[in-house]
Amino acid sequence: MSKDVVPVQIYGVLPTESQSIAIFIGNSDKVFIINVDQTVGRAIAMSLQSQRSERPMTHELMGDIFTAFGIEVERVVINDLRSNTYYARLILKAENEVHKKIIEIDARPSDCLAIALQTKRPIFVSRAVWDEVEDNSDLLEKMKQGYPKTPTKGKKGTAEEEES
Question: Cα 16 to chain center, whole Å?
Fold first, then answer.
């Protein structure tokens, strides 16, 4: 894989004081936070535990549609951070007897993370975003130890994701 991206994983999911869900993403070098709405946050938490809802949620439905049409999720890349909003790309591969096609789709990082977890596909962050985000490894460690303080918005790299 290119040096322009950094492989990451989801380390934790935590409700915040602002009624959003903090998703801790990173690797052994750094952990950063993307705040998402409660619905997608719960979906990500369920996917981390390999659980499905009784009725398909949107990311589960998308995964089922991908499977039905022979589309595979290749990877997810959180590729930009502008005005405290994260952006991501969902990279798909469609292959049949007629053609083979790689498709990149612009999507919310929260949706991309849910789909990547469901399909067990890798998650990456662009080097530019990685270099810009604040390291929240210490906050993750406090969270694991039951520290009551939750992340708040306002710092670069801990901004709330737009959900429009």
Answer: 17
**pLDDT at residue 163, rounded to an integer:** 41
For 23, 43, 112, 121, 128, the CA distances from 37, given in Å and listed in that order, are 10, 10, 14, 22, 25
Per DSSP, the three-state class of 23 is strand
Q: Quick one: pLDDT at residue 82?
A: 95
pTM, rounded to two decimals = 0.82
**Strand-strand pairing, 85-95 and 71-82:** antiparallel
DSSP state string for 63-121: HHHHHHTTEEEEEEEEEEEETTEEEEEEEEEEE-SS-EEEEEEEE-HHHHHHHHHHHT-
**Domain range holding 33?**
5-144
pLDDT band for position 74 (50/70/90)? Answer: very high
Q: How many domains does the chain have?
A: 1
Q: Has residue 162 got a pLDDT over 80?
A: no
Round to whole Å and give the CA distance between 28 and 117. 19
Report the pLDDT averaged over residues 114-121: 92
User: Does 29 fall in a domain?
Assistant: yes
Q: Looking up tokens 């009624």, which residue turns up? A: 19
